[in-house]
Structure formats: structure tokens, C-alpha cells
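Exercise: predict the fold of this chain.
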Amino acid sequence: MPSATPARDAPGREHATAFPHDASVAVYVHLPFCATRCGYCDFATTATARIPYDAYTQALGAEWQHVQAHMVGRVGGSLYLGGGTPSLWPSAHLAALLSLLPLHRDAFSEVTLEANPRDGDAAWYRDIARLGINRISIGVQAMSDARLRWLGRTHTAAQARQSVHWARQAGIENISVDFIYATPQQTLAEIETELRALLALQPAHISAYELSLSPQSPLGQRALASLPDDAARADMWWRVRHCLESAGYAGYEVSNYALPGRQSRHNQHYWRGGRYVGLGAGAHGHLVTASGRFRYENIPTPSAYIARAGKGAPDEDQGGAWRHIDVLEDAALARELVMLGLRTTQGVDLRVLAALAHALLRDWQPVFARWCQQGLAQMTPTHLCPTPQGMLWADSLALACF
């Protein structure tokens, strides 16, 4: 592991709090436990029938107290409980978790919890709403039972409909649903049919992801070669975009669509380079301490995390829950902001790039001008904004800045 303690005048320190979007520090809590592991998943998750609720909650509290003692900035804006499968947590255990983290939930305008359609019931949704959860992200993934089985999901389309109904009945109006497309042999007509079924649920937000398989994943080992080719995937992306935007959902990021005012504030904070605390096994964070700006990754194994959380200085290689720490230099952050900004309609804030890496921005200007000439981006006095065509090829475009 590289040395993780930057010098007092480390790169990034002078810009640590300079960004308008960076005034608050978001919080992500990773609950990595699942009943079963999906065949396409390559996240930090653990399939288990027994979740150590109390021990894991105590570890989260220890890590939070430790991080809070060293970080610079004010926590607020958005709180996100992700996984894993947070909906496996009974409401009483979620209440204990939230009470142990001394977070003033009034500071969070958006509090999201991820849910599996198979979990929970009407009472559970009512309970979590009382806890302050005001946004739910439901892993619908497909509205075809056959595709759900192929993906290895353990719920049905009917259960997805029921989950959305229970959430809304509990008073949670900000409902997001996930949708996976570009599975083998899937046609444009089939995508459109499933999207119509999804739209009938009237969610506030839809995340529509192309299926991406790691060669190491169980599904990747048997199906990677049968995925649609690049041309077919591009056609599918355009069809998804047309269907959702025609229904009033604005595509504000490559894979994310929302009704007016319902964009994910938490994800937007990430995409703008904002700072965030990542708590839990396998969580990632982006923080500023007195020494500078850095990114960290937690130990992915829950048992090791429980044993080590809250130990060691946050920006030093002294053990603890953090297994990898990288100093985030200005040039690296500038490149990352270009990569992320090209995936969003808001685009890249040129003022931030100028503050971080003026020489790099000067070198990139001819590249940006060429994108504009090719119809891939548009330039305003303050932002470089991708066109829809540019968003489709955002990852390829960003390579020119690396």
C-alpha cells in the first residue's frame, strides 16, 4: 500500500473546500449482506442466512466516530443505505443502526434505502418511513418473470408491483426502480413492453442499466459471449431513452431518468466530485482531513471489518477498517470530473477544472472544441455539456483526457 499520509501542503488541500457543490459531506452506509448472491453481481456483498446485526451496527458506530474526529466539513445533504440488501434488516435493527450513528437526520434532505422486492411487507415500509427514510430504491431489474429467472433474481414481477404499492402506501413518494436490459436475445420490442409495465408503477425515478458481466461472475462465465454487440446495445440505449423521455422522465445521466425534481441528490453529489463518508465493509469514501484530500476503501469481509472498525488514524496506514487509501491530487480529480461530467446533462464545470488544473484545461480546450464540432458536446461560458450522442460515448471521450 502506498503511503497514505500526504504532506501538510499536499495537492488538493488548497481546493479541499473550494467547490460550491462540496460544502457538505454525504454519507453512504454499506450493508453487504444478501440472502443469495446474484449471478451478475461483482459488488462487495456476502451471502448469508445469519446477519450479525448488533456487531455490525456497533462497528459502523465505531467507524463513524473515528472518521468524524478527523474529517473536515459538515455532514449533510444525503444519506444512502445501500448493499447488499438493506431490506433484509428488520425495522428495529435499522432503528438501532440509525440511532447509533449520531447523524442529525434533519440535515439530510434525502435519505435513501435500497430494497429487494421479495423482502418487507406493508408494516416494514410504514416503519422505515417513520424512521425518516424518504426515498426507496427498489431492485425491480425486470418486469418479465422469465428474464428475472435468467438473471437469478428470486422475486417476481408481481412482487415488484406489490413493493412499490407498499412503499407508496407508507407515504414514501420518492420511489426509484432499477431496470436491467441488454440481456441475450432481448429485442427492442421486448424492452419497450417491459418499460411500459415499469412506467405503469409510476415511479419517481428509473435507473436503466445495460447488463455488464465480469468474466469472474457466475453469469459472466456462461453468458458473456452471448451479450448483444456494441451496435445493438447502442440501439437499445436510444430506445430506452426515447421511451422514458416520452413518458416525462428526463435523462439526466447515462443510465438515470427522473420526473422533475426527483433526481438522485446523492448520486449527483458523487458525480460532481463531492465528498462523502463511506461506512461499512467494502464501502468507499472521499474525504478531506487536515492533511489533504484522499479516497479510501474499506475491508470487504464483514468479520474483519467488525474486528477492525474504528482503529488506526483515517489518513495513515495504521490498520483499521481501511485497506487502501489514495491521495487525490488535483490533476487526478480534474480528470475524474471530466469522466463523470460527460455522463451527465449538467456536464463539466469549467470553473472547477480551472481551479484544479489550469494547465490541463488549456491542453484540453482543443479536444473540447473538436467534440463540439462533432456534435458530441456544447460549450457554455461555465460548462462543457454532452449532447445525447456524447453521453452515449462518454467513457470513450473521457479517454482523451487521461
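Check your answer against the key: DSSP finds 15 helices and 17 strands in the chain.
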